[in-house]
């Protein structure tokens, strides 16, 4: 199964693409879409254009997206919501299944603590995946954390099915 994790943002959007099987997560690509347009609407168009190309290239089976949260301000949350809308619409147009996770759930899946900071999440994932490149943006690690959380969730679900099966 090929999964794409997306940490949405209107200026910087993190992504991670990985192959998942029952025991392994094999990273295919991770990075950020950094928009350049001074216009908010122009940035949304850039996200759509780049994401469309990426979805066509990788054709993921599942998209994992961070749920919206109220952070610094309501205006920031609304802008984040627009960026998420572009991502969710593109996935829907391509028939790609989508799962959304809250930030606290993702952090708990990665570190065991839903209140962990970005540094702890990054440190754990760097060690787990043996990533030493310090130039990789935090937003890309946030997207990788989404993929990791989905893998943990799938693993937990399959164990429950095995426990119940005769």
Ordered list of secondary-structure elements with their pairings:
Layout: E1 2-7, E2 12-20, E3 25-34, H1 40-58, E4 62-66, H2 74-94, E5 97-101, H3 103-111, H4 118-129, H5 138-164
Parallel strand pairs: 1-4, 4-5
Antiparallel strand pairs: 1-2, 2-3
Structural write-up:
The chain has 5 helices and 5 strands. By secondary structure, the protein is of the alpha/beta class. It has one domain: Nucleotidyltransferase, domain 5. Strands 3-2-1-4-5 form a 5-stranded mixed sheet, with helices on both faces.
Record the strand order, biggest sheet. 3-2-1-4-5
Number of domains: 1
Shape: globular
Q: Output the number of helix runs.
A: 5
What would CATH call the homologous superfamily? Answer: Ribonuclease H-like superfamily/Ribonuclease H
How do the helices and strands follow one another from N- to C-terminus?
Answer: EEEHEHEHHH
Mean pLDDT: 90
Computed over alpha carbons, the radius of gyration is 16 Å
- Residue ranges: pLDDT <50 for 5 or more in a row? none
Strand content: 15-25%
> Which CATH class is shown?
Alpha Beta
Kindly report how far apart the N and C termini lie: 26 Å
Assembly of the depicted chains: single chain
Query: Share of helix among residues?
Result: 40-55%
Strand tally: 5
Structural class: alpha/beta
CATH topology: Nucleotidyltransferase, domain 5
Strand count, sense and closure of the main sheet?
Answer: 5 strands, mixed
| Shape-level CATH architecture | 2-Layer Sandwich
Please sum up the structure shown.
53% of the residues lie in helices and 21% in strands.
């Amino acid at each position: 199964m090929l999964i794409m994790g997306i940490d949405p943002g209107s200026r910087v959007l993190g992504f991670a693409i990985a192959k998942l099987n029952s025991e392994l997560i094999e990273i295919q690509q991770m990075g950020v879409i950094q928009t350049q347009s001074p216009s908010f609407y122009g940035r949304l168009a850039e996200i759509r254009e780049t994401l469309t190309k990426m979805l066509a290239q990788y054709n993921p089976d599942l998209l994992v997206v961070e749920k919206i949260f109220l952070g610094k301000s309501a205006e920031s949350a609304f802008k984040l919501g627009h960026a998420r809308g572009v991502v969710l619409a593109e996935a829907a147009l391509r028939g790609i299944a989508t799962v959304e996770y809250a930030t606290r759930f993702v952090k708990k899946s990665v570190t065991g603590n839903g209140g962990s900071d970005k540094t702890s999440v990054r440190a754990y994932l760097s060690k787990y995946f043996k990533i030493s490149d310090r130039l990789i943006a935090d937003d890309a690690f946030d997207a990788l954390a989404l993929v990791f959380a989905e893998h943990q969730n799938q693993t937990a679900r399959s164990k429950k099915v095995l426990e119940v099966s005769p």
